[in-house]
Write a structure and sequence with these properties.
By secondary structure, the protein is an alpha+beta fold. The protein has 6 helices and 10 strands, in the order H-E-H-E-E-E-E-E-E-E-H-H-H-H-E-E. The protein binds a DNA duplex through helix 5.
DNA sequence: ATGTGTTCCTGTCCGC
DNA sequence: TGCGGACAGGAACACA
């Protein structure tokens, strides 16, 4: 499911449910996601009050107040490919599961002191979670190597040009590299490259400065447009509040093989190719 | 040191 | 309908 816009959408949906609340009950179910569960995970969460929800790249960061056993900590959540978070309970005025009991892939179920139920579900279990002192969060192994936030001040054409310098990888691969810029995935890389009129096959280090400037701007506008639409819903993915994101209707190339290129006057056809084992969608007519 | 291929896991879809 | 294969929004890891 999730690239940066989807994680941001989930964060915004979850914030009013969790911020300021106490995690009254934590039901830790299947322990093995991508890595084994941290020690005493459920016990360390239970009873803690949530200070707020942040995000770094595709990681959602749930801040927890200190208690008599632990300092301030952050519950780090990564949704992997198939992770989702569902909310049910009083706040939404409904209980979303008709069938009683947790689903097969519901791995963590948290009940807040207000009675809302937050369920972390991940069929493929590529997701990750950890609990880490907030004071040293940037040193967490999963966060330490990340490049700049594309919607933050540190990201710019200058920054992107510096990261691309000397790179022999195709620009598609370079943008997927989380050390270059953090938070893009397969969909938004394809979309931003199309908006920028750049071939995904072009080597990152060979792009002119002006084209990199354009690309940096299109990365930002693509992500902002997607966040404004509530992210993209593929298959049955749902937002935290149960609404569907609708940016998938704005895809210009992703999953549109064979469709006419939407660029005005281009007349090309969207093609699918494979780059480092992953689908790339592009138009050879207007992406050079 | 970089760049690419493989791998983790389950579900879904498509062709036969 | 069933079955096999391809493919899926990620990214760590092994290897050239």
């Amino acid at each position: 499911m999730p690239e940066l816009p989807e994680v941001e959408t989930v964060r915004r949906g979850l914030e009013p449910v969790l911020a300021g609340r106490v995690l009254a009950h934590v039901d830790q179910r299947r322990p093995d996601l991508r890595w084994p569960l941290p020690e005493r995970f459920a016990e360390r969460l239970a009873g803690r009050r949530v200070t707020g929800l942040g995000r770094r790249s595709k990681y959602m960061l749930i801040g927890l107040e200190a208690d008599d056993r632990s300092p301030e900590e952050t519950w780090i959540v990564h949704l992997g490919m198939s992770g989702r978070i569902l909310v049910s309970g009083a706040m939404l005025g409904e209980f979303h599961h008709a069938a009683p009991g947790p689903g097969k892939h519901d791995h963590v179920i948290v009940t807040t002191d207000r009675g809302d139920v937050v369920t972390y579900n991940d069929a493929r279990r590529f997701g990750a979670r950890d609990l880490w002192p907030t004071a040293g969060l940037e040193a967490h192994p999963l966060l330490a190597g990340l490049g700049p936030e594309p919607l933050g001040n540190a990201f710019s054409g200058t920054a992107l040009a510096a990261a691309f310098a000397g790179k022999r990888a195709p620009v598609k691969a370079a943008l997927l590299d989380q050390r270059v810029v953090a938070g893009l995935g397969n969909i938004y890389v394809c979309e931003a490259l199309h908006r920028a009129g750049i071939s995904p096959k072009r080597l990152a280090g060979s792009l002119s400065r002006s084209r990199i400037e354009r690309l940096a701007g299109e990365v930002v506008s693509t992500l902002n447009d997607a966040i404004a639409a509530g992210g993209s819903s593929l298959r049955d993915y749902r937002q935290a509040d149960g609404e569907l994101g609708y940016f998938q209707h704005s895809f210009r190339v992703y999953d549109r093989e064979g469709a006419p290129c939407p660029t005005q006057g281009c007349g090309g056809t969207i093609r699918r190719i494979v780059q480092s084992g992953r689908s790339t969608f592009h138009c050879a007519g207007c992406q050079r």
